[in-house]
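Field reference: sequence -> structure
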Amino acid sequence: MRLKLSILAICGIIFGAYHSSAQTRWLNPADQNVPLIQQQGFPSELGNSYHRLPDRFRESVPGLVWQKSANASGLAIYFYTNAPEIQVRYTVSEDLNTPDMSTIGTSGCDLRYIDPDGAGHDLFMDYAFSDTIRLAYRHLDTSLQHEYRLYLPLYNTVEWLEIGVPEASSFKFAAPREEKPIVIYGTSICQGGNTSRAGNSWTNLLSQYLDWPVVNFGFDGSGKMEKEVVEAVREVDASVYVLDNLYNLTEFPVQEKVDRIVRSVRLLKERWPDTPIIIAGHTGHNSPSHAAQRDSSNKAAALALDIALKDGLKDIYLLSFDGLGMDSEGSTVEGVHLNDHGMMELAKVYERYLRNVLRLPDGGEGITHGVTQRRMPQIYDWQERHTEILRGNAQDPPANVILGDSIIHYWGGASLGDHGIDTWNERFAPLSYKNLGMAWDNIENILWRVNHGEIDGFEAGTVLVEAGSNNTDENTDEEIVEGVVFLLKSIRLHQPKARIKYIAILPCAQEETRIRILNRKLKKAVLKAGFDFCDPGPALLTKGGVIDRRLFVDDAHPNSEGYKLIVDDILK
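Structure field:
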């Protein structure tokens, strides 16, 4: 023990010496007057505490559940900065490691960088674990104010935490995401045992894969579907509930397992009758030693599902892991708890299943995979505009909407630009159109917004879609056609009764010929898929087939006169 402490102390000295020359500004989320913790089930009660259940449940839930609820598993802090280096320092209240998990896996934070095109990247860190844990991430890109996501310790309780950046760097905490979260109630595997680091727990991976908030109610070995715990879990308004408790029910006979599952489903449906519930099967990891437990538990889950359906309960699903391909040697640490490979495989299975339940279609990599963007944060905040749209739709549901990139965003009726505000006010406003344009959006960015609630919660008469202009620099014509049709079909899932009309790509300088050919391909594919199509672009061309610069602000965006010439075709 003395040697261990000496090594930690030396690491701390070296770590501190490296940073002593830099002037660091330290920011504490707990000092902010609004909740900032992402993926927390009770933000209004917990504030910026790093616990998962509020104090009022202390006496009602089992003691071990209460103890584990103080662990920060699944919680995260999102922020934006252009800092060349990010430091994190914090203290925890329990031992730095457990017998079967590393110090980093038990008590470490994990920082992830989201690039301007929405792709996530892991970051390497220097670390020193002592009374105050210190992490540092260096050589970061300073060209823009980028998004970072800090995942908190899986198996320890955070007492206080600060994030440090150089004094001259910008910094802004991100508000918690507003989508209804996926709520997962489960076991030690759900809590994160035994992955190597916080970002690789399967619930955090699932949140990354879907880019959707996931509330983690994994309570180690005490996640046993007790009535009192389910009553606490159901207070969180979820997009879907996942009951992943079968590993912790192996001590019970089949009938007791059935009773606990059925009771849990009934309690959830009593509070939220329209919210889907997924009963997760027992994975078993194809291990012969777990075959009897797996078969008994899966039998109980199937019986419980049958009872729930006979009760008339809707949207109850049973997720089977047959054929998953996980085994005790390649996917687990000791035959039960998952290593990083096992966590990734489990998260992928859940991702595929939940995309169907939540209507989040995904075509894989590329243009049919929805992602965020943060290409010009100095002009406007993309995520903040998304939040504004969600709140605005909730307060004043639109009758019609128009989705698009900067060509739509600049038109009018939105927070960025008013190149055609007179036309907007005269033609769109009387029809109660909502402008859902976002500058610099690609097809995949509009797809992300569609799948994250921007056209949910109301019944639109017409959905106009302008997309693809920004993809012409990066994608082939065939990819753009595929992406547009995929986007329109995704919109149909969210607005099944609406008229959906695609607006062809408008001409821009030096690309007139290519866009004309591309629009022919788009027209054929869009009409074949059953959607409406219009091509107002020729009104913006000269007789020679190039853009009429008198109708443009620049080489791509119409001015007021240009918008007047295309509005009739769009609204026809």
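Note: Residues 291-310 form the longest helix (20 residues).
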